[in-house]
Amino acid sequence: MSYLPTVEILADKQDDAGRASWLLAQPISALLREAMSIRVVLRKAGCQWGVDALDIEVSCAYARRDPRTGELPQALLEARREMRHVLMAIADGVLPPVICRREASE
């Protein structure tokens, strides 16, 4: 399958640290524009935590904001903050991939 160059870079990543770093570095606009291709690449790599991170970022981008403050719902803010911490830990090699992957039976 042919992807845009930025998604090709993700597809060429050989480890979870590289994929996590890539996800952290991408502009939200790129994640939104290429969400389906990114999802395919992450799933092929067995990277469910990456798909989850993408879903959270997309949800935040499309979520309805508070009409008075413009803030995202607190649950989404917390989920995004937690997922970014997980991505940083994976990128830094602090969390081994086995901890980050879901069991095949789920």
- Tally of alpha and pi helices: 7
Radius of gyration: 14 Å
Oligomer: single chain
Which outline best applies?
globular
Helical percentage: 55-70%
Question: What distance separates the N and C termini?
Answer: 28 Å
Q: Output the helix-strand order.
A: HHHHHHH
Question: What does the model show?
Answer:
The chain has 106 residues and is an all-alpha fold. It has one domain (5-93). Helices cover 67% and strands 0% of the residues. The protein has helices at 5-12, 16-25, 28-33, 35-44, 48-62, 74-91, 97-100. The longest helix is centred in the last third of the chain and has 18 residues, at 74-91. The two termini are 28 Å apart.
List the helices and strands and how they pair.
Elements: H1 5-12, H2 16-25, H3 28-33, H4 35-44, H5 48-62, H6 74-91, H7 97-100
Summary?
This protein is mainly α and 106 residues long. Helices cover 67% and strands 0% of the residues. α5 runs antiparallel to α6.
Keywords:
106 residues; mainly alpha; disordered C terminus; 7 helices
